[in-house]
């Protein structure tokens, strides 16, 4: 269950670390009526309360007992820069907000909120640091400290949902239909809380990407519990299609993911078209080389019917030549597209990190690389750098403190 922490009784549990079934079990052991778990769940994930006293329709004695047995917040936003008020770092265009959080044991993680035209996306961390050690990545360079708990993963989303609710934030156009469904889904019955009006929390945060610090498939259990909790219609109700998990290529994890009932979007960080180069940029490639990775991606695509995204950070003079674009196109054609397994490539301008010599490719080179992939029939997008001015790249803010 939860991480033991400072300022809490030694046997207190982190409430956000409980699954709905565990919460039900706990409350049943207190002889509470069976609807109590749904009420608490609604307050936590639908009304987004951060304090037991805000659970207004629950008996006072019950709230007191809950407060004795469990604790709620596990994250504390930290002030990061003297010229920015509060805990958030906001990009010059105001569209990207990055927060550094302290965990209860003093470790720190980062999360980012990005506003797009029709979406509000939270990028969450799944580990403190990362054991993979990619040399271009600030998190990889900082080493590995520990896995996050499900509650610590979830609470990053809850935090931003609360900040959006309390505004001011750029407005979104009318709610998008939930993808994969014909229209705006009816809201689940309001079981516990108040304060969300007619819309669910998924109108505050429309998308979640597991692309912050850490490798989610090396912290599978907690990550998946967080995904299932966010998806749960009794609470947050975020559609599985609005959740994307990014992996560096943990093959057994991808295979396990393809057997899950919920089918989230899969992004695979590729960064190189050959084992030789990928072995340098992504050390895990030595354990799971490209032929194994591609076979797992093919099986994922075929069993879920979902299009896989390949992330490719363009690094000047390292992985950005036309010949490398040709090889990448050939690899994706042969292993996926020719067997009707849809995929696309997302080219990312590298965010340079302190202490590493990797530099981003020029815009001209990036466009030529994209053209070559498209010439080979590989759908490709060239991502605009997001929040470069606030070091929104993975692990970059934490490295400054
Ligand atoms: N460990 C997972 C998820 C977290 S990293 C993974 O590697 O996929 C999320 C994304 O940020 C990955 O695609 C990663 O390659 C990319 N990334 C890391 N450092 C970067 C940098 N300096 N510039 C651009 N992208 C970077
Ligand atoms: Fe870990 Fe992903 Fe960074 Fe590589 S890119 S070190 S896998 S977080």
Can I get a quick summary?
By secondary structure, this protein is an alpha/beta fold. The chain contains eleven helices and 15 strands. Residues 130, 136-137, 211, 215, 246-248, 269, 311, 313, 348, 350-351, 353, 393-394 line the site of S-adenosyl-L-homocysteine.
Order of helices and strands: EHHHEEEEEEEHEHEHEHEHHEHEHE
Largest sheet: 11 strands, mixed
What is the count of DSSP helices, taking H or I runs of 4+ residues?
11
Q: What class, by secondary structure content?
A: alpha/beta
Topology:
Blueprint: E1 13-14, H1 20-29, H2 36-45, H3 60-69, E2 70-71, E3 75-78, E4 88-90, E5 96-103, E6 108-115, E7 120-123, E8 127-129, H4 138-141, E9 144-147, H5 150-166, E10 207-210, H6 220-231, E11 243-247, H7 251-258, E12 265-269, H8 275-281, H9 290-304, E13 308-314, H10 322-335, E14 343-349, H11 363-375, E15 380-382
Parallel strand pairs: 1-2, 7-10, 10-11, 11-12, 12-13, 13-14, 14-15
Antiparallel strand pairs: 3-5, 4-5, 5-6, 6-7, 8-9
The structure holds S-adenosyl-L-homocysteine (SAH) and iron/sulfur cluster.
The site of S-adenosyl-L-homocysteine (SAH) has 17 residues, from β11 and β13.
